Amino acid sequence: MIKISISFKIMKYILYARKSTDEDDAELKEFAAKEKLEIAASLCEAKTAKEPGRMKFGKMLALIENGQADGILSWHPDRLARNPIDGGRIIYMVDTGKIKSLKFPSFWFEDTPQGKFMLNIAFGQSKYFIDNLSENVKRGLRQKLRNGVYPGWAPLGYLNDYKNHNIVIHTEKHKLIKRIFELYSTGEYTLKNLADKFNGLGLTSHNGKKISPGMMLFVLKNPFYYGVFRYKGEMHEGKHEPIITKKLFDQAQVMLKRRGRHHEKKIHNYIFTDFMKCGACGCAITAEKHKGHIYYRCTKKKGICAEKYVREENLTDQLKNIMQKVSLPDDWANNMLNELNKEKKATAQSSVALVNSLNQEVKIIENKLDNLLDSHLENVIDKNDYLRKKEELINKKIGLEEKVKRINDQGDNWLEPMRDFILRSRLAKKTADEGDLPQFKAFLRNIGSNFILQGGKFEFLAQFEWELACRRQAYATWLPIKNIFRTLDWDKIKEELSIFQCGSFPNSF
Ligand SMILES: [Zn+2]
């Protein structure tokens, strides 16, 4: 039998606890035992870490300087330093390699630029304020929380701006993150599908690794993307720019819940099953594979229903054709969007009153948040109630703010559906070009219903504006399309449209 022995220098730690917090000492010993840390010395500090010049702290650093220990074990960085001098000394000793390891049961430290950045923040972000409940301090704490800088690594799609202690949007990746939420909300993707797709699009983690389904889940569950963050179980409004709306985030959460435990179960074996009905008998259309090709057919047996098979390539061509018909060239879409913006300005005034009242509600919530924090700091309400109530208020506030933004953006209620129509038309072109089949299906489901296969032909019932688009009439001129959305009087529009029997795009309005 061969014995393999690995030898390495065992790191020695100094256990540093604070006398005033009794929990520290016992829990640290337990932690050390669990992590198999060798303790060179245990020091118990009576002074708080607010001011420099603590005796035991100085002794600890001296022991490390002398090489009698290489690391520190403490409950949290805020036990080590709550003033810039001590904090700076620790970081300097990490930099110069005197301190080789820092262990905290309630904080993860890694000797990297990011790790040191976080350590610095942890030194600053102590409970100092809560120790003293003067009005000034309360105001200071509120300010800090209101500043809303997430004290950690930027999530995927963002970057840490170390210079300004801020988190900023990644110029490329943020678009992909938004796309992840949009696609997942369609219900046509599993986490695995998504991971594969976005690996294909070149999305990588911060350290350049491939995206796993687990990471997708992490992204989809992270409220950071709509502008808030949780820190130590508490929700804060972030200062960072959101990538998505709360509305989109909520849609993704609904989908996550719906898929639940069956998450990674394949949705369909073939993309267009569970999508169409047989036009002849009304039965579901299923699919099977023959000699490398996928065929869609009625679930009724041959002889009972006369409908014939359709090859997937053929079906895809038909769908692509529809999407090309309803797609709007970029320059046209942009012209229409410009017109929309003009309309928006004209109608903006009418919504001023509504916006004012919504803003009033936001103010009330802000007051409530302040009162809530005061009650918490004065121990009037317990922590869990505080956290729960705070989360509720913040979400409500963001919902209101998004509503204000929507109103400011759309001005009038017909503008938004129309903008949506134009954007979708523009997207149709891109989707058709990309040839991503789940997106074909999602797109068609968005614009119509009653998908059938009859006589080898794909047909469906499009929403009115999309039916016009299919016939290329909606795009005849600016006026009819605007009327569609403004009057919603379909008969009148039909009449009007008959004047513009226009099969191709005019060059201008
Ligand atoms: Zn049939």
Poorly predicted runs of 5 or more residues: 1-7, 127-134, 263-268, 497-509
Category from helices, strands and their pairing: alpha/beta
Number of strands: 14
Bound molecules: zinc ion
Tally of individual domains? 4
User: Which outline best applies?
Assistant: elongated
Count of helix runs: 20
**Approximate strand percentage:** 5-15%
Strand order of the largest sheet: 2-1-3-4
Distance between the termini: 88 Å
Share of helix among residues?
Answer: 40-55%
Largest sheet: 4 strands, parallel
Which whole number gives the mean pLDDT? 79
Radius of gyration, rounded? 31 Å
Describe this structure in words.
This protein has helices at 23-35, 55-65, 77-80, 84-95, 113-124, 128-131, 135-147, 173-185, 191-200, 213-220, 246-259, 312-325, 330-347, 352-377, 383-410, 415-434, 437-447, 464-470, 478-487, 490-499; strands at 12-18, 38-45, 71-74, 101-103, 158-161, 166-169, 228-231, 234-237, 277-278, 285-290, 293-298, 310-311, 448-454, 457-462. Helix 4 (84-95) packs antiparallel against helix 5. 51% of the residues lie in helices and 13% in strands. With 509 residues, it is of the alpha/beta class. It folds into four domains: 12-126, Rossmann fold (3-Layer(aba) Sandwich); 158-262, Hect, E3 ligase catalytic domain fold, CATH 3.90.1750.20; 277-328 and 417-499, no CATH class; 330-411. A hairpin with a 2-residue loop joins strand 10 (285-290) and strand 11 (293-298). Bound molecules: zinc ion. Zinc ion (ZN) binds next to loops.
